[in-house]
Amino acid sequence: MINSKLPKMFYGGDYNPEQWDHATHQEDLRLFKLAGIDMATINVFSWAKNQPDEDTYHFEWLDELIESLYENGVFVCLATSTAAHPAWMATRYPDILRVDADGRKHKFGGRHNSCPNSPTYRKYSERIADKLAERYREHPAVLVWHVSNEYGGECYCDNCEKAFRSWLQKKYGSIEEVNRVWNTSFWGHTFYDWNEIVLPSNLSEHWGDNKSSFQGISLDYSRFNSDSMLECYLLEHAMIKKHIPDAVVTTNLMGFFKQLDYFKWARHMDIVSWDSYPGLSTPYSYTAMAHDLMRGLKDGQPFMLMEQTPSQQNWQAYNSLKRPGVMRLWSYQSVAHGADTVMFFQLRRSVGACEKFHGAVIEHVGHEHTRVFREVAQLGKELQQLGDQTLDALVEARVAILFDWDNWWAVEKSSGPTVALKYVDQVHKYYAALFNRNIQVDMISVDSHFDQYDLILAPVMYMVKPGVAERLERFVQAGGTFLTTFFSGIVNESDLVTLGGYPGELRKLLGIWVEEIDALLPEQKNRIVMTQEYGSLQGDYACGMLCDLLHSEGAEVLAEYGEDFYRGMPALTRNRFGQGSAWYMATDPDEQFLGKLLQQICEEQGILPLLDAPAGVEASMRTKDGKQYLFVMNHSAEAQTYDLGVRSARDLLSDTEITGSTTISGKGVHILELG
Ligand code: GLA
Ligand code: ZN
């Protein structure tokens, strides 16, 4: 429980008073109170202010700031300021500057730009975390520690190259093993000495749109890069814990962020926090999926919504305003999926540089009489009224989708069979089919426990890691339902193909053999023709992108291809295995097909929608102490009607009793405590 000292959802966000004078700070405090703001994330980008040179540190301004926030009822999420190194440090110690994939050494500028293997960066970031933790270890205002900010990017400098070799030595032990897992007999790449290994960049193995001549090398570089940044996080983390063993330490993640294996990171975070920046055209099912992934990082523990914009961003091509009600709606959507805080970037809009056109609670006009401020203040009031009711409540799902960063990297580094295959898009397609029916989903790692679920989906499980196939077999054997798709079971964790026929280790479970994989041109389609009715599936449906040409080895064929030379070959199979069944979707079907398929599979398992509601109305449930909180969210602009059936409920937001058929306004939210 992060909220023991402030038993409600924290409300506030990034605050950068170092950009303002004293009078403005005073005015901010008045406005925070008006908006119901009780949490400020500070010190995110103040390293240069904190440390003007090698040996001098100035934290007096922070002392004063923390004190005045606290006196005004605002708690602190204290960042360590290490996400942008000072200019003097870069001039004096150029090893802190990154080298990009084209081999260009960067100069001072921007942020999130320190080389993760720079001895200078590691030394000074560790030291400042140490000093901050020592100084504020007993301060009652500091409730959360925020290490650095949005780790990401890559570095290809000589220090990283050396560190990569050590990382490989530790992982593989011998150069022979490295040669084996990278299959270096291909294109005469055999290495005889560790020093012959270089980073896979545009100067070596990489070409085109993020493609690699050696996927094994590039995959290991991605793992190494993620680990290097994690080591930086851990250095600061250790300093904080040294002074404050029970500190709540986090760093703000970014949802489906490709470069870092967040499942690995989350093990070292006391609470997951993340920054949610959907564009106006981002499907709201995608945002929901990202929240579910963030909840899944720590086995379903609630997370912090660390940042979202109150109104607009500056870094998109077209920075539309969140329409009236949308900030509130999306805030509750994050809560519905497991957030225990609602926080913004930023509290006051800066006067210069690239974020001056980024939305803020306090706009350039400087007062409270704005649409954005009014909406923020209304939500602030509601969160105060909700108090601790939903805090720590869990989201319970019977359906899980497997998600895996190594698989993501490997699928998209693959040369062939198609550039159209995007892992997250495929996962989203399956997620959305369930989401649209208000079926709750957990996004889990391949290392999670499977037995609590009835249905597990693994779209494009190209890479099968050691032991996963056996665990899935046991899951199905015991009665579970498993579904995977085309381009699954192809390689092991080193991106080496499992020989003897696709889908490799999953072949027995699925009862099929995939002989060939056809890639379709963007405008090309095939047809899925049902060989029997299944639920409401009958007749034929469009499919495309990839088509597996497969043979059943015991699996039942529910649909076949309708076109081309492989007309009549299986397109959808189900294999009875022990008490359960394992499905294979051999191609990329249209949404209608997928919706009906998953609806029927769920129905057979007795997995029912949370709510019978029209399109555009989302439902998600959190439970706590035997109480059920059903969040109903209307993403459409018009009022909608949904039916609670025989259930009765109290809407916590309007404090009214609700039964039967109910109207929810456009962009409206109900939080129903079910009776
Ligand atoms: C990120 C960063 C913030 C800010 C916002 C703007 O989330 O963490 O510092 O730049 O983006 O959207
Ligand atoms: Zn580097």
Automatic annotation (TrEMBL):
On the tree of life, the source organism's domain of life is Bacteria
The protein's matches in PANTHER family, at most eight in alphabetical order, are given as: BETA-GALACTOSIDASE GANA
Q: What class of enzyme is it?
A: hydrolase
Going by the UniProt record, its keywords in alphabetical order are: Glycosidase, Hydrolase
Q: What is this protein called?
A: Beta-galactosidase
Positions of the Glycoside hydrolase family 42 N-terminal domain: 14-386
Q: Which reaction(s) does the protein catalyse, per the Swiss-Prot or TrEMBL entry?
A: Hydrolysis of terminal non-reducing beta-D-galactose residues in beta-D-galactosides
Q: What is its EC number?
A: 3.2.1.23
Query: Where does the record place the Beta-galactosidase trimerisation domain?
Result: 397-607
Q: What is the similarity comment for this entry? A: Belongs to the glycosyl hydrolase 42 family.
Record-linked SUPFAM superfamilies: (Trans)glycosidases, Class I glutamine amidotransferase-like, Glycosyl hydrolase domain
Q: Name one Pfam family in it.
A: Glyco_hydro_42C
Which residue numbers delimit the Beta-galactosidase C-terminal domain? 616-673
